[in-house]
Design brief:
CATH architecture of the largest domain: Alpha-Beta Barrel
Distance between the termini: 51 Å
Largest sheet: 9 strands, mixed
Shape: globular
Number of strands: 21
Structural class: alpha/beta
CATH class of the largest domain: Alpha Beta
Oligomer: single chain
Helix content: 25-40%
Number of helices: 12
Number of domains: 2
Bound molecules: pyridoxal-5'-phosphate
Strand content: 15-25%
Radius of gyration: 23 Å
CATH topology of the largest domain: TIM Barrel
Length: 432
Amino acid sequence: MFVSENLGVNNAGHLTIGGVDTVELASQYGTPLYVMDEQMIRNTLRRFHDSMKKYYNGKGEVHYASKAFSCMEMCRIVASEGDGLDAVSIGELYTAYKAGFPMEKVGFHGNNKTDEEIRFALEKGVGHIIVDNISELRRLESIAAELNVQPNIMFRIKPGIDAHTHDFVKTGQIDSKFGFALETGEAFEAVKEAVNCKNVKLYGLHCHIGSQIFDIEPFEEAARVMLAFIAKIKNELGYEIDGLNLGGGFGIKYLEDHDPAPFEVYLERVSGVVRTECDRLGVKLPTMFIEPGRSIAAPAGITLYTVGARKEIPNIRTYVSVDGGMADSPRYILYGSEYEAIVANKANEERSEKVTIAGKCCESGDLIGENMPLQHAESGDIIAVCATGAYNYSMSSNYNRLQKPAVVFVNNGESRIAVKRESLDDVIRNDI
Ligand SMILES: *Cc1c(COP(=O)(O)O)cnc(C)c1O
């Protein structure tokens, strides 16, 4: 009935998430409110790591891409499932560190890491640094020497795969700010330099072709390209690569007609390609890493809003305005992304209207979405926007000096606060 399987309707006709009444959540914690379903996060992590066991003999690790949704409680949940983490900034590293995350299970990414970030990552003992470019390799080599450590590194490679997704979230093609290009020989030159570095160990290769990808073929193709490169490195340099990180990017269902391939099928097919190619090329089976972000966080989350003004413009459209907007839900204004919405206190009723849900920020583009099927919404109703667990809280801002909403986790019929709502004093806390 709804786009995410953890949503339901209770006897009061209210929308539930993980069995908890969303209308009660809204009244208990206020709106806007991010709600995350802990059990669903755990289930999805298990689907990934169980498939890794089943289809790849467990010779691999799942690293949750924390940029999708990062807070200390999320890090604790991932750690308790035994999975790893991917971080792209000192802030994400710090969050994991303060949450007690085992830092040897963290991969540190970023196309423009600062010396401060590199130093922090090395001091905290992250498992891998995914090196993006040659100047980073050289800086890392000298900082590692200074700190007397020998980090494992992976190289981020652009495999030259065109994933069919939004231009802003495509990353595997040659015209990308991320990684070393294969076609030009840039990646091979960097590998030659790295295998002679004294203070870093070239452990693996990494690629990430984009996000919200529904098909499996681009992932299979990327695996083929990467293994061909691993074989070239072995044949020409006599150097064996231990790890292959195939990134994240698995698509999720935002709308009823979205039909992403199940993660199990992805892992079965990609594992198959990796084995076949290793046999064919005569290279050893690498330890495999995947980095799902959106697929773990997005379906587990919803955002709750309270309806304020309703504006019917005859023959044009109806605006239903809510108490949040682009500051807490930036994906519409960034990518024109679409969501399913439900009036939480009328969840049993037909979605009989098509409306534009607008935010309260001073931008005409500040919308949650257009042409959204919705129950008749009036002032005081609670609207739930579905599958907002990824790239909403993590991309939120204080635009218009709005306070960032709270994040609540639900589990076993209970709710608990994981991130407090910002106070007015938080809004001015750094002002002098
Ligand atoms: C963003 C990103 C991911 C996660 O992508 P999703 O689409 O959220 O799964 C994984 N790896 C890298 C390097 C990324 O930049």
